[in-house]
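Issue 218. Parser rejects a valid record. Input:
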Amino acid sequence: MAINLASPRTSAISLLCSSILLLLISSGSSTSLGNVLKNGYELGAGGLLSIGNYKFIMQRDCNLVLYENNTVLWETKTQGKGTLCRLSLQSNGELFVFSESRKALWRSETGGEFGNYALVLQPNGNVVVYGSPVWSTGTYIQSTATAAPSILLCIAVQILLFASNSSATGNMLMPGETLLAGNCLSIGNYHLTMQHNCNLELYHGKKLTWESHTTGMGTKCFLYLQVNGELAIVSEGTSSPFVWMTGTGGGSHRFVLVLQPDGNAVVYGTPVWSTGTTRAVHGNAASNRTAKSIPFESTGN
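Output the parser choked on:
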């Protein structure tokens, strides 16, 4: 059992900080979009992205702030410079904080080619704008805020079967990382599971919305994101290790697989901006994302 050794003064300060934070972000119109903001969308005053202990908040005082619990990790320092401010991700990958009059109070200065970009609050506390996607499951569904029992079951199975070396990894797979059999990426009502039968399956609640159709095609299979953006199912027990591939490999860049709050699983391209606030992942959240010696395979795309 944890013992609280904080002094009354420390506890009072902590309570005050929590109260101020709630005042800045709370109201009936405050919204959370999970941990992903796609271009063409905005984060209004009081809106936030969140995952684990991290919150990326467009505060009502016009300051855009990244918090770890109550600790500020990064901010735009634009408090008091406008009213009803919004964070906007443009179709060229540039981030803006606009005032009510659409005056630009802050910008990331990362504008490039027009395409489809995504701002992601990662489980390690870094906020990154990733470039245009190279692959997706094409399963866009209106997201909901309530976790389905099937997700809780998925995570419970992981804890029971893989407690010694793995657990849930949130909703992201970074390049060079693997998703082991029996594990899943999950957010809201959605979970992307690498089944023990070698099939990769995406569920909305208990409904199967997408699969790789690789049941029984390998043994000890795992999902692997190559540094060239190729997503592959690899079997450890067959002569040909690659059971399934997206066919999207091209060059050596930094890609990421994100299971979005809308139910679409997307491999996004090279990042164009970040807060530079990468932290150690809390608990065992990254313990099933292991480095393996896997033969690199390029599709020539």
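Fixed in the parser; the record now loads. The first strand starts at residue 36 and ends at 38.
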